[in-house]
Amino acid sequence: MKFKDGDLIEIIDKKERKFLIKLKRGEKFHFHYGYINHDDLIGKNYGSKIKTSKSFEIIAFPVKKSSFVLHMKRGAQIIYPKDIGAILIHGDIHSGLKIFEAGGGSGALSIYLLSIIGKKGKLVTYEIREDFLKILENNIKTFFNEIPRNFILRKRDIYLEGLHENDKNFDRAILDLPEPWNAAKNVDIGLKKGGILISYNPTIQQITKFKCFLKDLGNYYFEGVYEILERKWKIEENSSRPVDRMVAHTGFILVARKI
Fold first, then answer.
1. pLDDT score, position 109
2. Mind listing the pLDDT tens digit for each residue in 159-173?
3. CA 173 to chain centre
4. Sheet-wide strand order for 252-258
5. Three-state DSSP class for 97?
């Protein structure tokens, strides 16, 4: 595969720092190692090495979703890739699903969901803040080069307004809300029996309160709560050790299934 005009790519320098570029003929990308002509990358194979204007070597790849979400513009704090991975696994996310998401934030999780569910699936995302909506929409458009037809973004308060009349029969519901218990009854109306409900929250107090609420609601099987810690290792021929800093606590993931 070769890079082409309009591609979103990532370049990696000798210190493993990553930079995102959208290729455009005639333009240059300036950074601490000089600059790179976009034209020098267009037509090159994926994984090519090229030199900057200051003769430093970089490697160019198609952008990974994990790189994009960590570098994209943010309004709300994003769900980190390590947690997104767990959500996709415990939510059993696959092609063709109809998914409801409340608290879209900057769109990190939305990008992964849209990539997996494919054209036969559907994602409906609620976000109450106008500024977050604009950032979310722009991030989706930047990554996919368009707004996918199976993506519906609504400015709506799930706490007070409930679900839109057209939003029903969801296979999955994913909440990234400060008070998920205040949304649970409204979300429950739209979630299919056997469907999976996931809540992502930063504190264990939020998770505990939500679990107790679901228990009182009486129609959910509680699967568990998960916390994902990620530590990278530095591998050398004569010395292998963990890196000095790790991505520790970011949030808890509660998983339940509708009875």
1. 97
2. 999 999 999 999 999
3. 15
4. 151-154, 122-126, 98-102, 170-175, 191-201, 252-258, 220-227
5. coil
Beta bridge partners of 220: 258
CA distances from 244 to 12, 74, 216, 241 (A): 21, 26, 44, 9
CA–CA distance from 186 to each of 100, 151, 191, 218 (Å)?
A: 12, 20, 9, 15
The residues near 157 (Cβ < 8 Å, ≥ 6 apart) are 126, 128
Least confident of 37-46, 183-192, 232-241: 232-241
pLDDT for the residue 76:
81
Distance CA 73, CA 143 (A): 12
Give the chain's mean pLDDT.
Answer: 95
Per the structure block, which two tokens stand in for 256?
């339940």
DSSP bridge pairs for 198 = 174, 255
- Secondary structure (H, E, C), 24-42: CCCCEEEECCEEEEHHHHC
Pairing of strands 191-201, 252-258: antiparallel
Domains with residue ranges and CATH for the chain? 8-63 (3.10.330.20), 67-258 (3.40.50.150)
| Residue 201 structure tokens | 């929250």
Structure tokens at 129: 């803040």
Q: Which 3-state string (H, E, C) describes 180-234?
A: HHHCHHHHHHHEEEEEEEEEEECCHHHHHHHHHHHHHHCCEEEEEEEECCECCEE
